[in-house]
Amino acid sequence: MAFRNPKISWLNSTSFHHKQTKFYPNDIITLNTKRVGIYMKYFRVHMKDCAYITKQPRGIFTAVGRLVSSKTLTEEEEKEYWRNREYFERVLPVPPFYEKNNPDGAVTWFKDSAEAKDIWDQMTFYREMCNKYGIKLYVSECDEIPGVLIYEDAFQIAVKDQPEDAVIITREL
């Protein structure tokens, strides 16, 4: 659950202040002794091309998967792709809606947490393939859940119905 309060001034992308208190990602925020939420940032790494189901930019897993489908990778790279895919499907939960071809058009976002950052650090093969084959990657970040939450695990969230006024900062990776 994301939290915004006009009494909080946002300083930068990693912390914010309320009066004399400094908060960091994953801190539980309590005002007037009432727990109101957990401050969490979310990010996703994607290409510019939008998916027809979600109408949002395709994520890095899909970007590299398309290189496999188009027979762009070398034989050795394709073998490495399948090793990586198998590994990530084992350690990173696959949201159940993908079994039904994502009927709600959900988009997944990594949590800005130690667990998700560890997964990102392990994704070197995906970044290398995008770099080698000229796929520009972008990172989008937001301070609030960017839509209606339909799935969550330790690493990621999935949302649908992203509001047009969602504050999302996107930059080239």
Average predicted local confidence, pLDDT: 83
Structural class, from secondary structure content?
Answer: alpha+beta
Shape label = globular
The domain tally reads: 2
**Helix proportion of residues, in percent?**
25-40%
- How far apart lie the N and C ends? 27 Å
Beta-strand percentage range: 25-35%
Describe the model.
It is a single chain. This protein is an alpha+beta fold and 173 residues long. It has 2 domains: 9-38, no CATH class; 42-172, no CATH class. Helix content is 26%, strand content 31%. It is built from 4 helices and 12 strands, in the order E-E-E-E-E-E-E-H-H-E-H-H-E-E-E-E. Strands 6, 7, 8, 9, 10, 11 and 12 form a 7-stranded antiparallel β-sheet that branches. The protein has a 3-stranded antiparallel β-sheet with strand order 1-2-3, with no helix packed on it. The protein has a two-stranded antiparallel sheet with strand order 4-5. The chain is globular and about 45 Å long. The two termini are 27 Å apart.
List its salient traits.
173 residues; alpha+beta; 2 domains; 3-stranded antiparallel beta sheet; 4 helices; 12 strands; globular
Give a quick rundown of the structure:
The protein is built from 4 helices and 12 strands; from the N terminus they run E-E-E-E-E-E-E-H-H-E-H-H-E-E-E-E. The chain is an alpha+beta fold and 173 residues long. It has 2 domains: 9-38, no CATH class; 42-172, no CATH class.
